[in-house]
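Please fill in the sequence for the structure shown.

STRUCTURE ENCODING:
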């Protein structure tokens, strides 16, 4: 029953909070207690996720474990069926971890819009939907959890987001609801031919009983629904606006978990349940994946906003995940699942750090942020540098393995696929890795390196200075002039005139250190994750 408790803990926490808000809607006392309340509830959920990982039998990682199978709607033969295997368990733990770290971060980073209790309630409901998606083993139950996350995330963006939050939230909900409608049609088509919605039985059949034409149509439908959430080029256009306007915790959960729900759907449903449809459409999936790699990288080179840059980088990174899935091989699917976890950890850290920079300087614009921050905020910008080099795929860090294994799988795809075509995909993906390094190194050169900018402060209620300085388009002459002026004014002049911006805080370190440790651990010991996913992958694909 540990899986039921995993869902019940955040749900009960949200219900208690809702009752508390109904009784004391404007209580300042409630607003003070809620941050730690969210930490406790999400901490209990994380403890349950770790308990599930502790009792999981890793020698049978290819089989569903800790299952709960009860009648849900008997007349339609729908069941409340939950379970975990080597594919879903890492994603459940990742979801619980990121949600807990978000609440910990919020203890000292309150939203400018206020209404913190409502935000905590929304995040707890969101956690129920995210964890439920990875636990569900009934197609309709999966769809219900898949949809639960949309409304909370809409409100996270629309209520606590940036100046253009309403438009970004509407675009997010329209795209994802349209994708969900198509997804539902595909799931119903599977049901009509297979006669069951049980994902375990469907996987064991490997498409038996579903005609080839129906498999192709169903794969198109469910693939389109998952592609919107992934997001796959060209269905990605909702993502940059959503990330740019979302609050920091919204961006962390959106990139760290919600994007994984789409690629998880491909791995759990589309590929094993519709193998003939996958064989026909996998080359197109690979083509769109590598297009996203190059497009996302080129878009990043043109960005002038840090949050928007990271959003476009997600399009490129998820392109590697889609390429791995498109090879229809155990190596490719393992690469995709490893890339999912690595991207969730790294991009979660990136959005945390960039969110803290935005809190300090009230902007995420590369043109407005000062340069030379490595000298003024050494710890914060060191963490930014670490996250960037992890994201560009530096060997020894988690980001390297997902990309490298996806390219390796493209070198030797399934025998039913065209090897020359996939060699082309591999070459294009390799170009994408070079472009990824280019835009991250360019970003670090603009922000962390060079002489510190001469800055101007603006008074803020929190006592933090707003620093503005020369952007990347300023000339070297202007920078030299500013340096000479600062030298003439004396070494302490700027410090006297402008309050110091604080470096990383204890709460930020507490929220980010687990991500840094896991990025290092998976980079140095990838077998820790691959040994869990590989048996489940082989069982899904029917491989020896």
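FILLED IN BY: designer on duty
SEQUENCE:
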């Amino acid at each position: 029953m540990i899986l039921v408790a995993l869902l019940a803990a955040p749900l009960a926490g949200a219900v208690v909070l809702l009752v508390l808000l109904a009784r004391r809607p404007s209580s300042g006392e409630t607003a003070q207690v809620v941050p730690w309340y969210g930490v406790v509830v999400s901490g209990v959920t994380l403890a349950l996720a770790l308990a599930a990982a502790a009792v999981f039998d890793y020698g049978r990682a290819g089989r569903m474990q800790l299952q709960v199978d009860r009648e849900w709607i008997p007349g339609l033969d729908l069941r409340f069926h939950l379970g975990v295997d080597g594919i879903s368990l890492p994603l459940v733990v990742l979801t619980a971890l990121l949600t807990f770290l978000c609440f910990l971060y919020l203890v000292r980073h309150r939203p400018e819009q206020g209404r913190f209790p409502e935000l905590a309630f929304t995040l707890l409901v969101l956690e129920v939907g995210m964890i439920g998606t990875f636990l569900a083993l009934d197609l309709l139950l999966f769809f219900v959890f898949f949809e639960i996350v949309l409304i909370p995330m809409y409100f996270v963006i629309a209520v606590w987001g940036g100046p253009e939050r309403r438009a970004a939230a509407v675009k997010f909900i329209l795209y994802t609801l349209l994708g969900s409608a198509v997804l539902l049609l595909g799931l119903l088509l599977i049901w009509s031919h297979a006669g069951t919605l049980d994902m375990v039985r469907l996987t064991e059949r490997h498409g038996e009983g579903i005609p080839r034409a129906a498999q192709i149509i169903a794969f198109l439908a469910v693939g389109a629904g998952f592609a919107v959430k992934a997001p796959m080029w060209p269905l990605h256009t909702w993502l940059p606006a959503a990330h740019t306007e979302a609050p920091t915790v919204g961006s962390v959960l959106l990139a760290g978990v919600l994007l994984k729900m789409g690629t998880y759907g491909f791995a759990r449903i589309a590929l094993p349940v519709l193998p003939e449809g996958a064989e026909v459409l996998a080359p197109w999936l690979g083509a769109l994946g590598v297009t996203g790699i190059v497009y996302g990288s080129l878009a990043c080179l043109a960005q002038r906003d840090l949050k928007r840059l990271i959003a476009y980088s997600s399009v490129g990174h998820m392109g590697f995940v889609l390429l791995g899935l498109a090879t229809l091989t155990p190596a490719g699917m393992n690469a995709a699942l490893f890339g999912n976890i690595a991207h969730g950890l790294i991009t979660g850290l990136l959005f945390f750090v960039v969110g803290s920079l935005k809190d300090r300087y009230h902007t995420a614009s590369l043109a407005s942020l000062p340069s030379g921050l490595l000298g003024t905020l050494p710890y914060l910008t060191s963490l930014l540098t670490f996250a960037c080099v992890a994201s560009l795929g530096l060997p020894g860090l988690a980001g390297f393995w997902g990309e490298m294994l996806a390219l390796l799988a493209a070198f030797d795809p399934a025998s039913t696929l065209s090897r020359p075509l996939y060699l082309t995909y591999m070459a294009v993906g390799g170009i994408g890795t070079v472009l990824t390094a280019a835009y991250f190194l360019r970003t670090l050169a603009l922000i962390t390196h060079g002489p510190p900018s001469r800055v101007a402060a603006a008074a803020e209620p929190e006592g933090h200075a707003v620093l503005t300085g020369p952007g990347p388009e300023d000339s070297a002459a202007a920078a030299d002039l500013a340096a000479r002026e600062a030298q003439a004014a004396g070494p302490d002049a700027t410090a006297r005139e402008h309050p110091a911006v604080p470096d990383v805080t204890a709460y930020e370190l507490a929220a980010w250190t687990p991500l840094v440790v896991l990025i290092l651990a998976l980079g140095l010991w990838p077998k820790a994750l691959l040994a869990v996913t590989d048996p489940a992958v082989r069982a899904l694909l029917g491989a020896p």
